[in-house]
Design a protein that fits this description.
By secondary structure, the protein is of the alpha/beta class. It has a domain of 153 residues: Glutathione S-transferase Yfyf (Class Pi), Chain A, domain 2 (Up-down Bundle). It has ten helices and 15 strands. The strands form three sheets. The chain has a six-stranded antiparallel β-sheet with strand order 2-1-4-5-6-7. It has a six-stranded mixed β-sheet with strand order 8-12-13-3-14-15, sandwiched between helices. Strand 1 and strand 2 form a beta hairpin. The longest helix is centred in the middle third of the chain and has 35 residues. The structure holds adenosine-5'-diphosphate (ADP) and magnesium ion. Adenosine-5'-diphosphate binds next to helix 1.
């Protein structure tokens, strides 16, 4: 159920546990609906939009989304929405996204990750291997969080301490003892972040190699000092060394206003196994296929590790595949058992899903079940 969410003033949809196919012209509101579902997980949603931009233009009240979710532990009611800064009576605090779980207010949607996994592929992600490292790192951390529920909180904790250290350093005359204590906390959280990433990549690589998929296998590795260090040295040693390197980079970091080393710089390195080629050199279609392969393997893994397969939001994915590949995709999705939300302009793309999904068509701002 959506309220004042982008193009929707008010909208609700009953789907049951089936997968869902959404068709309609460009601008009909398909991606908006997927974005709403993505807010039933921690983080900034699949568009990474500014929270205030999500609000329906011209609407007074803040946006909200809620959903009834059927989990292995029973039915849960998840909700989220904008808490605008003016509602906090403080002009300095930013807009916030709050959560609601089974009727209780939560400070943040972080706990949603313990209940439900949501993963997505969007047309913007077609450039994931080509664009900057931050997009790949976010993609990585979302993968990790599917098998390490505390990962997002750990990343958040690391970044908060890092910002605090940067602020202190840039103000000058920082109390060295205080900076030291921040640095040891950074090292502690940083090593936890790196260790979870390594473990997840390990498991995911295994899932990829075990899976009989029509999509190409990816070889995954991590480009990051801490992750590399943890491959062959005890965590405590890596933590101590990271801490020492932070101490010696204080002057440089004070000048640049940034933190020059740490797991906030890590890259996810992807290679096309059969072609033995880095993903960024593969064709657009091959890159998409790699990304689908990783997403499917991750969904399979999260089904066993998390206890339930994720909800998958596949925006405009079908249109880029030939009929054979589309058939394989639908089949593999069926095996994983996820509820999948697929979008496309043309219903004929989804004929092979006819018996496995509910179809909805968007027209003139209305949604019609087919
Ligand atoms: N904050 C907003 N308020 C009102 N309308 C919006 C807002 N943000 C986006 N839209 C509208 O939503 C539509 C896009 O919907 P989208 O879900 O991306 O379409 P598609 O079906 O092609 O995926 C556009 O017409 C856009 O103008
Ligand atoms: Mg769209």
């Amino acid at each position: 159920m959506l309220t004042n969410f982008r193009s929707y003033e008010s909208m609700s949809l009953e789907t049951g546990a089936n997968s869902v196919v959404l068709t309609g012209a460009n601008g009909a509101g398909k991606t908006n609906l997927l974005e709403a579902i993505s807010f039933l997980s921690p983080g900034r949603g699949l568009r990474r939009a500014k929270l205030s931009d999500v609000n329906k233009i011209g609407a007074e009240a803040p946006w909200a989304v809620s959903g009834r979710i059927f989990t292995p532990d029973g039915e849960r009611q998840l909700g989220s929405g904008l808490l605008p800064r003016h509602a906090l009576n403080s002009e300095t605090s930013p807009d916030r996204r709050i959560g609601r779980l089974d009727g209780e207010n939560l400070n943040s949607p972080a706990a949603f990750g313990d209940i439900l996994q949501v993963a997505w592929l969007t047309p913007q992600m077609d450039r994931l291997f080509i664009d900057g490292v931050s997009g790949r790192r976010r993609f990585l951390d979302r993968l990790v969080a599917a098998y390490h529920p505390s990962h997002s909180r750990e990343v958040g904790a690391y970044e908060r301490v890092m910002r605090e250290r940067s602020k202190l350093l840039s103000e000058g005359h920082a109390d060295p003892q205080w900076v030291s204590s921040l640095e040891s906390r950074m090292a502690e959280h940083g090593v936890a972040v790196a260790a979870a990433r390594l473990d997840a990549i390990d498991k995911l690589s295994q899932a990829i190699s075990e899976s009989q998929s029509a999509f190409p296998s990816a070889v995954l590795s991590l480009g990051g000092d801490l992750e590399q260090g943890l491959l062959n040295r005890p965590a405590l040693e890596v933590e101590t060394e990271f801490c020492e390197r932070l101490v010696s980079s204080r002057q440089q970091d004070a000048r640049s206003g940034r933190t020059s080393i740490g797991p906030h710089k890590t890259d996810l390195l992807v290679r096309h196994k059969n072609k033995d080629m880095p993903a960024e050199l593969c064709s657009t279609g091959e890159q998409k296929a790699l990304l689908i392969g990783i997403t499917l393997a991750s969904a399979r893994l999260s089904a066993t590790q998390f206890g339930a397969p994720p909800i998958l939001l596949l925006d405009e994915v079908a249109a880029h595949l030939d009929e054979k590949r589309r058939g394989f995709l639908f089949e593999e999705l069926g095996d994983i058992g996820s509820q999948v939300w697929l979008t496309g302009t043309d219903k004929s793309l989804f004929e092979l899903m006819a018996n496995r999904a509910r179809f909805f068509h968007f027209k003139d701002g209305k949604i019609e079940a087919e």
